[in-house]
Amino acid sequence: RSSPDVFESRMEKRNEVKKQPVGHSKQGEFIRCMEEKARPIFSAEDSGTKTSKGGFTKDKTLDSILNVEMVKEKSAEEIKQIWNQYFSAKDTVYAVIPAEKFDLIWKRAQKCPSFLYALPRKEGYEFFVGQWSGTELHFTSLINIQTQGETAPSQLVLYHYPELQKEKGIVLMTAEMDSKFLVVHEAQCLANQVQLFYATDRSQTYELVETFNHRSSEFKYMSVIAELEQSGLGRELRPGQVSDKS
């Protein structure tokens, strides 16, 4: 009441502050600054990576997906939960493989880098050849190889990441696929068969892999189908995570 001019001046400034959007406030600047400094656990999908023929990521690294330094402080179980939760919302195949199981798969892959897999269809089976290239496993249909030879494009690639294998005892896996030829549960069936044939304790099952690589004239296509049906993997699978069945 004593200084009406001062009062009106203060009210005008107060109204100006209220009209300012959050982005222009000091609080907004602080939040934006913190967001820029904080790197999320998962990186932007394939940032800075190149794609090869067929749209698959070339030299797809774990760092292009996951902030490895950030998760090193977490336990193997926590990392597994983070990985599974992240990829469960995506239309892809993924897994967290125990180190011992991957050791067995990797050791056998060095001796037997390729194998023939059977994918159940509405009528019969379609055969796919899986070929290891480093820790990547590339799949293409047998008919592609028969018609295009070595230039046959990949239709599914499984990416295995052993960066946390020694320290955490796990190997992370995810995949890319050509959706024109495969859907998720079909890609999952192929991925599950890798563990079925390469991580098996049954000598008769792994012997099929050895025969295909080293004694191809003795290899019988129907033996793969028989193993697949016996394991139960021939049934339609729920899209998403690779099972631990081997």
For the CA atoms, what is the radius of gyration?
Answer: 26 Å
Could you give a short account of the major beta sheet? Answer: 6 strands, antiparallel
State the total count of DSSP E strands: 8
Low-confidence stretches: 17-25, 30-38, 236-241
Tell me what the structure shows.
The chain has 246 residues and is an alpha+beta fold. It has one domain. Helices cover 43% and strands 18% of the residues. It has ten helices and eight strands. The strands form two sheets. A six-stranded antiparallel beta sheet has the order 3-8-7-6-5-4. Strands 1-2 form a two-stranded antiparallel ribbon. Strand 5 and strand 6 form a beta hairpin. 28% of the residues are buried. About 10% of the residues have low confidence.
Structural descriptors:
246 residues, alpha+beta, six-stranded antiparallel β-sheet, two-stranded antiparallel sheet, 10 helices, 43% helix, elongated
In short:
Belongs to the ATP11 family. By secondary structure, this protein is an alpha+beta fold.
Secondary structure topology:
Elements: H1 4-19, H2 26-37, E1 50-51, E2 57-58, H3 68-71, H4 76-88, E3 94-98, H5 99-111, E4 114-120, E5 125-133, E6 136-141, H6 142-148, E7 156-161, H7 165-168, E8 170-177, H8 184-198, H9 203-214, H10 221-231
Antiparallel strand pairs: 1-2, 3-8, 4-5, 5-6, 6-7, 7-8
